[in-house]
Amino acid sequence: MSENNLDVYLAEPRGFCAGVRRAIGIVEDALEKFGAPVYVRHEIVHNKVVLEYLRGKGVIFIDDLADALPERPVIFSAHGVGLEIIEEAKHLKLNILDATCPLVAKVHKQISRLEESGAEIIVIGKKNHPEIIGTIGQLRNPEKAIVICSVEEAQKINLPKDSKIGFVTQTTLSVDDTAEIINVLKQKFDNLMSMSQSDICFATTNRQGAVKALAQKTPNIIIIGSANSSNSRQLKETALKNGAQKAFLIDRAHELDFEEIKGSVGISAGASAPEELVEELLQELQKHYDKINIHPVCFVKENANFKI
């Protein structure tokens, strides 16, 4: 009888990025300093396990600032908020702590500069994603922003070819898909302005690069992350577009059908998924296979940290 062994290719980097570590750290510090409850507008990051952990500590997640008790701290999530929300918080005299990722805050500054320059503004990203809502919310006239998330939508933009155009991007998009959209814009408009080639953050870029490397090692890829996490979904799509035959996006190990995994598997985790979930999955794999052989696949060393 042959052994049921499994080769496990483990992506590096994976899991928490610097912005997520900073955001969660701000919440934990607020709990320690002020005690519970602490309010967070929107989900601090898009991960079910992290949210459950923080709820257990006394965090209350709200969508409406009016739902917060005025004497308690209110934290803005890592995705950032628009100017209207900031003004509302001042009006309500709330004690605000801002956990906006510094790289998202950088995009906020860029889109404000583009508006000041008088450019028509294109935003590449998911229209209803909280990061995009916050980014557009930096504008004095948010309705003027054109939001697109595909090549087809880019091709349909109805502005004169010689228009002064500025663009920013969501930080958690597919690197390859975004490059295609930007190339369309470059061909379509003569005066295309941007503060950078794209605003996709280094953590997103690095994790997608590592998953591409995994897909060259094994046809089976597991991404740990929540379904509403943009960067986690993009990792699954990146795997499928770069050689993987099967790609699974799961919150926890128990969601996986181990019968579908034969011979080898690659594992990564979205930027809002804690490392403990990777360890949990590895422990579960050990129960289903005679032996697992772990092979690190390092795309790049990542050691960035953002101060709280």
List keywords for this structure.
single chain, 308 residues, alpha/beta, five-stranded parallel sheet, four-stranded parallel sheet, 10 helices, 38% helix, flat
Task: Describe the structure in your own words.
This protein is α/β, with parallel strands linked by helices and 308 residues long. The protein contains ten helices and 13 strands. The chain has helices at 18-34, 48-57, 83-91, 102-116, 130-136, 151-155, 175-188, 202-215, 230-241, 275-288, and strands at residues 5-12, 38-41, 59-62, 73-76, 95-98, 120-124, 146-148, 164-169, 191-193, 220-224, 246-250, 264-269, 291-298. It has a five-stranded parallel beta sheet, with helices on both faces. Strands 3-2-4-5 form a four-stranded parallel beta sheet. A four-stranded parallel beta sheet has the order 7-6-8-9, sandwiched between helices. α2 links the parallel β2 (38-41) and β3. α4 runs parallel beside α5 (130-136) and α8 packs parallel to α9. It starts with a strand and ends in a 10-residue tail after the last strand.
